[in-house]
Amino acid sequence: MYKKRFDGRDWDETRPIEAKVGIIKRANGSAMFKIGDTIAYASVFGPRELYPRFLQNPERGLLRCNYNMMPFSGSGDRVRPGPNRRSKEISMVTQKALLPVLNLEAYPNAVVDVFIEFPQTDAGSRCAGICAASLALADAGISMKDLVAAVAVGKVDDKIVVDLNYNEEAYDHVEGGVEGAPVADIPLAIVPSTGEISLLQMDGEISKEELFEAIEAGKKSSKKIAEVLRKALKDKFTGDTNE
Amino acid sequence: MSELIVKEKEIVVPGEELANGMDFLPGDGTYREGEVIKANKLGLAVVDGRAIKIVPVSGAYLPKRGDTIIGKVMDITYSGWIINTNCAYKAMLSLKDATSDFIAKGADLTKYYSFGDLVVANIYNVTSQNLIDLTLKGPGLKKLTGGRIINVTATKIPRIIGKSGSMISMIKDATKCQIIVGQNGVIWVDGEPKNEIIAVDTIKKIESNAHKSGLTDEISKHLEEAMKGE
Q1: Strand-by-strand arrangement of the A149-156 sheet
Q2: Would you say residue A137 lies in a domain?
Q3: CA-based nearest residue to B205, from B228, B183, B176, B225
Q4: Which domains does chain B have, with CATH numbers?
Q5: Of B15, B29, B43, the CB nearest to A147
Q6: Which end of chain B is less crowded, N or C, counting CB atoms within 10 A of the terminal residue's CB?
Q7: What is this model's ipTM?
Q8: CA–CA distance, B43 with B156 (Å, rounded to integer)
Q9: Which pLDDT tens digit goes with each residue over A92-115?
Q10: Domain count, chain A
Q11: Which residues of A touch B37 (CB under 8 A)?
Q12: What is Dmax (Cα atoms) for chain A?
């Protein structure tokens, strides 16, 4: 039985969060988002001209996201550099998670590029990436209705937990020769002001009732994360941290 | 009952509620959702009568009618020049807006403005598709020769110019350089090579300290020291 979380957190408690805006000088907007041992750096370039020309859309701008784990970012083997099936999928879901808040019709024929890099990961990287990207987009002065906050929720053994770390994600319990239920891992992205869900994926198994319970817990946590994001944006201009 | 939720000149983030009630109107960088006006952009909230708008504090340049910009000739067409504006959209400088000379059909337009030439031009129209029309007819609008070009963040330009040009004229006076500031974040500096470097350094210093108050005094001190240390 999973009685207490490996790192001693409450069931609905996230790992410690740190967020900072405006860290990459050459980008139009940038941000760092750290949750526990997962660190995401996002940089935004644009709106800028879009080529090849057939990609241009006269009705709205294009958002391009790029998710990349650095070779040394994993806890096990070296991560093979370059795009792969997984990173392409995550780039796509990141883009779709951010699109509902962006007013891209203000940038016809142009493109907004978002590059998300991970120097270190410990589960929950797509959620950290979405948080970092939404901060960087705001920092780049892109017109957007709201920020996007993301967090993973899940079920470990019989407990609903928020923000799984790698140990929990890999939890594999056998008692008396009987295998426990597989861990459910559900990354979730929320538009805080409306409660809209812009990303919902799942690994593992969970019942319908527990899924709703988990999503509610995730909504609550992402409201808190949204507060951290807002504070990080304001700190760039009021705090002493920025030189 | 309408009420203002934020203070004047407060930093607001996208999605933040600015005011409640129909007595306020959403201006630039804001939108209305039900009765509430919310921010669309990161910036300073400014209340202008009944309207609330956001003055952006970061981001790439977006073309606006009336702005004077510095651009580079990229291409030449039948009817004029295509100008790179340092933003996502190219600008068109048509023959009639470029010169009052008579230009015969099929004449060589590179005689007037050739590839790579820099021009100070005024934006007189921006369409909904962000097509930009430029004019060179007006005081101070011309082709630039010599000097050097630097790029700064477009949102910091008002700070570099200062209140009614106080900051920029201070730099001009101290370094005896000619300086032209484009709203698109392109700045042209021409003078003694040593002084040019001082002017560029000073402008970079303003850019990185734009959010601080009491910057004018700091910059005047910096200029004094830099000119002495020649």
Answers
A1: A159-162, A149-156, A184-191, A196-200
A2: yes
A3: B225
A4: 3-56 (2.40.50.100), 68-144 (2.40.50.140), 148-228 (3.30.1370.10)
A5: B15
A6: N
A7: 0.90
A8: 12
A9: 999 999 999 999 999 999 999 999
A10: 1
A11: none
A12: 63
